[in-house]
Amino acid sequence: FHIPVFLLWLFAFSVDPKIEMILAKIKSMDTSRRPQILGLTTPNYNCSLVAKHFSATVIKSTKRSVELIEYFSDINGNGVKQKTSVTGETGNSDKCSLSFIASKDLGSAIINTVNQIIKQLTPDHDHAETSKYKKILIFRSTRKKAMETAVDIAKRSLLHLIPTADSLPSEFVENLEDDEYSKEIRNCVKFGTAFHHAGLSYSLRKCIEDEFRKENGLIKVLVATETLAVGVNYPSDVVIVVDREIPSDGDFRALSGPEYRNYVGRAGRLGASEYGESYMLYESVEAYALYSPTYIKVQDVTVESALAKFSPDGKMPYILFWMTQSANNIISIDDLYEELSYNTLMFHNDESETAKRSIQKSIEYMRRLHLIEQNSFSAERIGEILSGFALGRATINHITNAIKNLLSRKIEPEAFTLDFLYSLCQCAEIQKMSYMSLSNQEKDAVGSLKEFVRSERFRNKYSIKDIEQTNLFMDLFDEYSMPNSGKLLAIKRAVVLYLWMKGYEVEAIKKETSFSRLFFADIVRIADVASFITESICILSSQGWNEETAKREDLLKKITKLLQYGVPQSVIFLASLHNYKLTRKKLVSLSNSLDEYNQLHSSERPLRILEYFLQQENQIVKNKKILTETVYKDVVSDICCRYNGGRTTDGIDEVHMCIALDWDKRNHTHISADIDTYYRRNDNGDICECICSLLQQIPFNSTCVLQQSSFHWDTNYGSLNRVY
User: Fold this and answer.
1) What's the distance, Cα to Cα, between the start and end of the chain in Å?
2) What local confidence, expressed as pLDDT, does residue 706 receive?
3) What burial class does residue 700 get, using C-beta atoms within 10 Å of its C-beta: 0-12 exposed, 13-18 middle, 19+ buried?
4) pLDDT surpassing 70 at residue 279
């Protein structure tokens, strides 16, 4: 039996209560099967409380890979300098003058600092192509600041003098095509800079990270938000910190000393830098005098429990989780208090009586929501289902009332889907998200939203016949009152998610709806949360409620996957393979091609549509290659299967080989006959089912790591599942 090892960023213990519950569950396990946990954090976080509770050993090291030189300067270039040796010892702070920083504004101070670093490296620009440029990482507090700083550096810095490639790498260009920031990124990369934040698509962020890590990559200067600070593999030569605040729960809070140390910990690359440099820039002399002591002499911060800060309302879902997971029989508040105190730090700051009163309130909330039995501590069926989702009290109340009633209403599927999304976007978990907010113009322009929802093109395109019966329509067109900002935001998000599920690109959604403040990554985040909540509702509808709600189970499963991937149903099976090269844009393009052919040749069998798609040329050829590589390499090779060669009945193996190698080099007539023979023999089904049926026939030899493996197509979820 191999003991698994879990790696986690320990500071998240103070932020994310789910991490504490996972550790608590592990602590309660039998020691012989308990996995090992390796928690990482910077030296300025005191982990003694967490370590003592979970019987962990603290291994503290302040050593660095290379020496660090830190500069703290006001806008006039006056400040201090201090060194931290490779042993982690920080020397005295000595006054210094950094005259090259001196400028009228903070933006110019950043440009001056970047230029100074470039000058030091390239005194002779005639031989710049042989120079190794230092990698500069700049941290800004918001997406807007990160983008504006990168654009400013691209326009005004000496990076103009550094020769760059005439064209971007093909993989970079492909990922740019999917992102609404493509124009800004493209213009920045031409001059050796880029920006990185959570608003960029995952594939583009990864592309930028990889290019920045390359020794002679295109990107010399990367401006990022704090999203890049938690990575352990993004070192640079120089780090510049500008802002003293970071986003937190829709607002901003002060950047702590340990967080600053984590930022500058990126400075200095082992084997590539003799030393690391960092600059902390202040917008004024007064700001420097007031705030610099926090970052020059950093004080340790104790890692505490996130759960300990919660009210009884906030603790409720985690107490429910523990009640359903505990191996012991809990029959009283005292039992529950003892278990939670032993396994978690939820009440480590509270006296026992205070903690028990808090537990009692949480229990009362659960009973009101019928999550546990009224006269015992046993979970009801609904409580058992929802315990693993850690949903808040307000969201559970909304699910068990408004959404449950919606599931029982008899309206056609498209209208139900739109109304379900509207109700979903009123859940507290989605309401409190700062993404995809309302602009001031949108708050005032209710009329344009009404016009869009009521338009014939919107109704007819998706056959939303019963739209007048939806709560969304009634709330929007209430003649007695205007929808409040909360409902208006929920309507906006519901409409965006509805079009997202249909495969609309972000720009197309903007054009269709006139909405602003729409970004790919933001839609993905809201869609992920919506999909997660929908999954819980799906289980409730089939197991926790009644026969009427169970009738919507198949549709809810479909909505779950459509929200998760944001592509039409016909290509969900490819999206579920999670190949980052197979982007949403390419999947939508594939779906459109299949739909177009299907309309022209509606009598053809589904696999003929696949064959048609694979034979296309020009721009479709790119998708052909992606499709064949995904179907064969990512599905077959990923599970360590080896093709044995030879033929089996109906030429199935030849079809596999054609997919794996090159479809165009084969005899299409012969292959089509093989496909049709197999298709007829298996009655009927769609293209996805047929592909999975073909994949099941691939032989496994004795050298496979996983010798018994099969695939099945889940019609309800629309996904390709591997069964081991």
Assistant:
1) 18
2) 24
3) middle
4) yes
